[in-house]
Specification:
The chain contains 13 helices and 11 strands. The protein is an alpha/beta fold. The two termini are 31 Å apart. This is Two component, sigma54 specific, transcriptional regulator, Fis family.
């Protein structure tokens, strides 16, 4: 990854919630020359306003009520490492100016002290908000954006990269099988097709949770559509309720399902689809579906 080659360059990662922004940040860190030092992940929206400055810059003992010991802030803790600022857009506008100065000067001053402290850190920030809109609304500083997005990585939602669903599905199935001390299940092709027609509003995080639950509840050696129905049956945007308007994708999926329904008999499959066998064969060639005598197809 290009961003890993430049140890001091700031990176801004954008994308919807659940797309894996922190995972990308960790990859950048652990493939860089800072990999042997700390990766400090901070959720900017989870810290109360009253403690924000103390948490980021640290404080001196007795500087305020509750400051019973000297404390290093995130910038000091991240010395020689990477400071990952998640949900950066939720940071109060008054703190943004101080964050900008710390990034530019690589020095900070603890609350209650006057002596500056030098620290060497790399900033990777992430957000699921539209930064440009926040700038127009005067909720985010333009100069801070310019400092953060030297390299900008935009992660598309899972529904826009459905080719990633199958490898992610296999990865999560293997991961949770190992954690649950179960054999890695086989995944039916119809299950993969079924999931590809789901919009995944929760993106990769939702898929991961679905696979974990499916493995916990699964009593077979394979994962079928029914193992995922349970996860989405109470949702209005479930796979079975999601409408896919792409004609070619729908035609391809219908042919696959019909082949399975009729045990790969082409005459019966054509009859079920309401077309001639020659028309079915033309469509099989169109989509690169090869039906073997053993009762399988490849696309």
């Amino acid at each position: 990854m290009t961003a890993s080659k430049y140890r001091d360059t700031s990176v801004l990662i954008t994308g919807e919630s659940g797309t894996g922004k922190e995972n990308v940040a960790r990859i950048i860190h652990y493939e860089s020359s800072r990999k042997d030092n700390i990766f400090c992940a901070v959720n900017s929206s989870a810290i109360t306003d009253s403690l924000l400055e103390s948490e980021f810059f640290g404080h001196k003992k007795g500087s305020f009520t509750g400051a019973i010991v000297d404390k290093k802030g995130f910038f000091e803790v991240s010395n020689q490492g990477t400071l990952f600022l998640d949900e950066i857009a939720d940071m109060p506008i008054n703190l943004q100016a101080k964050i900008l100065r710390a990034i530019e000067e690589k020095t900070i001053t603890r609350v209650g002290e006057t002596e500056p402290i030098a620290t060497d850190f790399r900033i990777i920030a992430a957000t699921n908000h539209d930064i440009n809109q926040l700038i127009e609304e005067k909720k985010f500083r333009l100069d801070l954006l310019h400092r953060l997005n030297t390299i900008h990585i935009k992660i598309p939602p899972l529904r826009e990269r459905i080719e990633d669903i199958e490898p992610l599905l296999n990865h999560f199935a293997s991961e949770f099988a190992r954690k649950l001390n179960k054999p890695t299940p086989k995944i039916e092709k119809t299950t993969i097709s079924f999931l590809k027609n789901y919009s995944f509003p929760g993106n990769v995080r939702e898929l991961k949770n679905m696979v974990e639950r499916a493995l916990i509840l699964c009593k077979n050696e394979y994962l079928s559509e029914s193992d995922f129905m349970t996860n989405t049956s109470n949702k209005t945007d479930s796979p079975q309720a999601k409408i896919n308007y792409n004609l070619e994708e729908n035609e391809l999926n219908l042919i696959r399902l019909a082949l399975i329904e009729k045990n790969y008999n082409q005459n019966k499959t054509a009859e079920l689809l309401g077309i001639t066998r020659d028309s079915l064969i033309r469509r099989l060639k169109k989509y690169g579906i090869q039906v073997s005598r053993s009762g399988n197809f490849e696309a």
